[in-house]
Amino acid sequence: MKLKTLAVVTMAAGISASAFGQGVILQNAGTAGNAVYVVTGGVTNLFDGNNFNVGVNITGGINASSLSAVGLGSYSSLTDPKGYTGLGLGMFALGPTGQDYAIPGVAAGGTATIRLQMWYDGYNGIGVAGLYGSYAAAAGSPTGLTADVTFTQSTGNPPLLPSPTLTGMPNIYLAGAVPEPSTLALAGLGLASLLMYRRRK
User: Which member of 34, 79, 90, 102 has the greatest number of CB atoms within 10 A?
Assistant: First the structure.
């Protein structure tokens, strides 16, 4: 009987411990100050996580010079376990629901630095998913929508506190990449300016 009681107590303790983690949950809470927006044609709208997908590279560490992807990884509509990265308007969730991730080098209850590289990744179920295979591909395209933010984030400290979501995250705006003008285009512009100046003389 005592052995059975001990097993039940141990199981209960395990369940309790699993509910609290020392890392962070890779999702935003969707409240004011940490929502995701899409900027297209000069119009800003809340990211619709039910119908549109984002891709996210996430790294973390003690500070901005020690960021690592260990255990955090990269997510997109094609690689996320849920098949999409959205929770609702302005919100996203990465990886299994409720799972927390330890931040490399940061002790439980400490403050971490998080970097999110996000890109628009196409439609979910009603069009093309995986529009861009990576942040680099989206950032290098004139039509890609990208954002790159770094912020500080507190971590959970078991068994006192649950792992927090990305509450330190600022609002993120996925805006189109601006292609750099080619050397030939710059040279042509310079030549045109010289010709205009010469004609005035």
Answer: 90
